[in-house]
TrEMBL record:
<dbReference type="GO" id="GO:0000272">
    <property type="term" value="P:polysaccharide catabolic process"/>
</dbReference>
<dbReference type="InterPro" id="IPR052369">
    <property type="entry name" value="UG_Glycosaminoglycan_Hydrolase"/>
</dbReference>
<keyword id="KW-0732">Signal</keyword>
<dbReference type="InterPro" id="IPR012341">
    <property type="entry name" value="6hp_glycosidase-like_sf"/>
</dbReference>
<keyword id="KW-0378">Hydrolase</keyword>
<comment type="similarity">
    <text>Belongs to the glycosyl hydrolase 88 family.</text>
</comment>
<dbReference type="GO" id="GO:0052757">
    <property type="term" value="F:chondroitin hydrolase activity"/>
</dbReference>
<protein>
    <recommendedName>
        <fullName>Glucuronyl hydrolase</fullName>
    </recommendedName>
</protein>
<dbReference type="InterPro" id="IPR008928">
    <property type="entry name" value="6-hairpin_glycosidase_sf"/>
</dbReference>
<feature type="signal peptide">
    <location>
        <begin position="1"/>
        <end position="20"/>
    </location>
</feature>
């Protein structure tokens, strides 16, 4: 009997080390995922190399690669991902392809027909400039910032997102918060404070009109351009006008955290903290922290998850944790770590050579429009890699 108890006691002593081995530290998780991401991205780049002027977009229902031209709003994310991965490993092959796909977007610096130039140019040329210092990127970026600024209406106090239609006159979407970082950079790079003034005015107008009392956000707010009055508040990609479309919520979280970093204005930090609280404490946030595509989707808990929303949220929370005190700091980091670990699991992280050679599975682009539903998304990949690098730098200090 005594021997049996000794054996049992010895087994229990061993158990913690077994559990520790099955639950790798974040440094190990990040290294493994970034290695997988590099393999996938190089395979995708080589597939795309012989398709002139094209950029990867997603896969169709049969798993076939879908491409876009440079004018598609997501065109900057794949080159941006290549730049992040090159920054991580120093692999010169990544740099070669990063330049190749970045240069395919060059002409968009003159595109005044879109508000997405921050996504398109700052994620690509912006990272290229930051990592390599190649001066020619400056001119492309400043031209692009001028094109983006041309869509600003001083009466409204916002950059126009989409064109006028029978549904709205001057639509502004919450996604547009993400393009303000581009203008904040342009103000510093050029010395022209008009870029900064536009970004700040847009952010302030968004706080005033885009958010409900619980700090959830409308997707679209349209204005009367001649007066600046709100015309309508609605959705385009969410479940309903009053629902909380998941990716829209995290665009706002990321955008206001970034605006605090760039301005030091506590109003933006407070807004980001309120949005974070809405998301983290929402009763429909799943236990694994990967949001449903809309927090008010009628078929929860069977609604589709959006891996891209989780990646954007994790990246934002990691940065936001640097601006707040305990215990909020650790709350943000623990939540982001949980999201990254789930995204790094086989359920969401693609095996090498699968998933069209994209990194993450299970993104939801525009479900009401039946577009890009439960497929990989280039922006999901971009912000996932960004989040991993931010965690390693800001939390692990590596």
């Amino acid at each position: 009997m005594r021997n049996s108890l000794l054996i049992l006691f010895s087994f229990l002593l061993i158990m913690p080390s077994v559990n520790a081995q099955s639950d790798p530290g974040m440094a190990e998780v990040i290294d493994q995922v970034l290695s997988r991401a590099e393999s996938q991205s190089l395979l995708l780049a080589k597939t795309m190399e012989e398709i002139p002027d094209a950029l990867p977009r997603t896969v169709d229902k049969e798993g076939k690669l879908v491409t876009s031209n440079s004018a598609w709003w997501c065109s900057g994310f794949f080159p941006g991902t290549l730049w992040y991965l090159y920054e991580n490993s120093g692999n010169k092959e990544l740099e070669k392809y990063a330049w190749m796909f970045t240069n395919r977007i060059n002409k968009e610096q003159y595109n005044k027909g879109t508000h997405d130039l921050g996504f398109m140019l700052y994620c690509s040329y912006g990272n290229a400039l930051r990592i390599t210092g190649v001066d020619s990127c400056n001119r492309v970026l400043l031209n692009g910032a001028a094109s983006l600024s041309s869509r600003f209406n001083g009466k409204v106090g916002c950059i126009q997102s989409w064109g006028r239609s029978n549904k709205w006159q001057f639509p502004v979407i919450i996604d547009n918060m993400m393009n303000l970082e581009f203008l904040m950079w342009a103000a510093k790079a050029s010395g022209d404070n008009r870029f900064r003034d536009i970004a700040v005015t847009h952010a302030n107008t968004t706080i005033s009109n885009h958010f409900r009392p619980d700090y959830s956000s409308y997707h679209v707010v349209s204005y009367v351009p001649e007066t600046g009055n709100v015309e309508v508040k609605c959705t385009h990609q969410g479940y309903s006008d009053e629902s909380a479309w998941a990716r829209g919520q995290v665009w706002g979280l990321y955008g206001f955290g970034m605006m605090y970093r760039e301005t030091g204005d506590k109003r933006y930090l407070d807004q980001a903290k309120h949005i974070a609280a809405f998301l983290m404490n929402h009763p429909n946030m799943p236990a694994d922290k990967i949001p449903y595509w809309d927090f008010n989707a009628p078929d929860i808990p069977n609604a589709l998850r959006d891996a891209s929303a989780a990646a954007i949220m994790a990246s934002s929370l990691i940065e936001l944790s640097q601006f707040v005190e305990e215990p909020l700091k650790q709350n943000y980091l623990a939540f982001a770590e949980s999201q990254l670990r789930t995204l790094a699991s086989p359920q969401y992280l693609a095996e090498t050579g699968t998933n069209g050679c994209f990194i993450l599975k299970h993104g939801v682009g525009h479900l009401p429009g039946n577009s890009e539903v439960d497929v990989p998304l280039t922006y999901g990949d971009y912000y996932f890699v960004e989040a991993l690098l931010r965690y390693r730098k800001l939390v692990l200090h590596r």
